[in-house]
Amino acid sequence: MNAGGGSRSAATFSDYPTRADEESQMIDSTRMNRRIFVLAACAAGTAAMVVPAHADTLDDIRAKGSITIGVGVMGTKPWVYKNEDGSYAGLEYEMMQYAIAKMGIPKFEYVPTEWDSLIPGLKAKRWDIIWSGMTVTEERRQGAGIDFSRPYYFESDRLAVKGDGPIQSPEDLKDKVIGAVTGTVEEAQARQLLAKGAVKDVKFFGDFATPFLALENGQIQAYVVDNTTYGEQKKVTPNLRTVGPVLFLAADPKWQEQQEKVPYVFGGDGIGVRKEDTTLLAALNDALNAMDADGTRQKILEKYELWDDSLLLKNMMKG
User: Omega before 253 cis (within 30°)?
Assistant: First the structure.
């Protein structure tokens, strides 16, 4: 299964903090704080800078021995789902298990929720992180005010239609209703199709499974869906096919300028954290880097028949 598209030039991911970066920054900060303290009498406004950084969520997680994870794709293969015996499976579950072991966290708790509740729930501290196939965007980083790990997966979109239906090309959708999940990059993709007059209307859903049912019963005539979810659904719903070319993920036009300045290629999925949780973010990046170094991430994605070279870290970053 093609999980990305096209080759991209290599780049380091120095923009993504690690624990080593955190320790270096703490040393630099201490040196700076000493200088600031000397100057404090002349510039009282700088006095606050000598206050040492406080511990963040990672310390609390380790103290209680469990991490809480917000997930909006529960039950959606191959992301995260339950087997018949009640055990969890899925590519994100397996990556998460590796990561928390590296971070010294013995337990976890999933909190399933609707997709558009993920970021508000994170900011309200209902969960510690989001690990839910969420695409890293500047609209989410700057607009919604959260941060992300380095990418661990890369996606593109498809226009899914009924296999035995009348839709043969994207042009056939001009007077038709299509579907997308609220709060996803596919929503932005669908809205752009609507703005261009390529479709009549868009119906939005709160989860990833319902649109497939809506497609089957004729409520919608096409579904803008990521390639990974589509590929897995087709295994259990053979009466599906795609029309038109691959739709590479597109940023909201309002954020295009900011999107062009970032080090990552648009379309990568990352782990969402609160802005202030820099130590937690660094530990997650360390775990993902270790997963690449020993080949575990590739093995997990190969297991789910998703691996290709577009998923190499260097190809998910800009040159």
Answer: no
